[in-house]
Amino acid sequence: MGRWRSGAPLALAPQHDDPALGADPHRGNTFLYEQDDPTGFTTPGCCHIRRANPRDSSVAGEVRLHRMIRRGAVYGPPLPEGMLEDDGVDRGLMFAFIGAHLGRQFEFVQSEWMNDGVLFGAGNATDPVVGSADGETGYTIPRRPVRRRLAPLPRFVVTRGGEYCFLPSLSALRWLGDLRD
Predict the structure, then answer these.
(1) Any residues with CB less than 8 A from the CB of 170 and at least 6 apart, and which?
(2) Which residue, 72, 73, 85, 155, has fewest beta-carbon neighbours within 10 Å?
(3) d(CA 117, CA 155)
(4) Model-level pTM greater than 0.85?
(5) Rounded distance, CA 52 to CA 132, Å?
(6) DSSP codes joined into one string, 51-118
(7) Average per-residue pLDDT in the chain?
(8) Which residues contact 57 (CB under 8 A, 6 or more apart)?
(9) Residues paired with residue 92 on neighbouring β-strands, in sequence order
């Protein structure tokens, strides 16, 4: 994913988890990729975090035009340590985003950045979390002196549903609030 379980990013805590960093909403996002890690030795190009928000990287599209507010909310208990199979317990992640232009933001990021590894130095590999491949491609992690190639991952994210909802602008909400009977 590009973050430890606590939320601390690999970019700032490459060797081990740092729960204090993960809990700090300001420090946990104070990093860049092109400036701080252009070769992807700390946060590889195949990481979900780097693909979902490439920050200052040179990729297809103007990064600032594709930014969106994203949040995930976990529900259910974590999968028990060491368990690899689905135990039938209801658990997952509810993802939400807020943006001004559906096609330019969410749809672009999902179709281009999540499914085209060339832009991130990851060859034909899709994003390992939400990409559309099902174990078709492996992942390359830059290393010195020789890069490391990982075997393809089976699909482990299953979309259960989705909705696009309209959220009125602040000016529209003010207008609605000023209406009389």
Answers:
(1) none
(2) 85
(3) 17
(4) no
(5) 14
(6) HH--TT---SS-GGGG--EEEEEEESPPPPTT--S--S---EEEEEEE-S-TIIIIIHIIIIITT-GG
(7) 85
(8) 33, 34, 50, 63, 120
(9) 75
